[in-house]
Amino acid sequence: MYEACTTCGERFIPQYAYQVATLASAPGEAPRRQFFCQLSCRRAALGEVSHAVRRARRIAILNQKGGTGKTTTAINLAAGLAERGFETLLIDTDAQGNVGASLGVKGERSLYHVLVEGTEPAEVAVPVRGRLDVITADATLAAAEVWLARRDQDRDRVLSQRMGISHRRYQYVILDCAPSLSLLNQNALTYAEEVLIPVSCDYLSLVGVKQVLKTLKDIERHLGHSVRIAGVLPTFFDSRIRLAREALETLRGHFREKLLEPIRRSTRLAEAPSHRQSIFEYDGDSPGAEDYRRVVDRITGKESAPLSTSRESSPQTMEPASIE
Ligand SMILES: Nc1ncnc2c1ncn2[C@@H]1O[C@H](COP(=O)(O)OP(=O)(O)O)[C@@H](O)[C@H]1O
Ligand SMILES: [Mg+2]
Question: Collapsing DSSP states into helix, strand and coil, what is residue 236?
Answer without folding.
Answer: coil
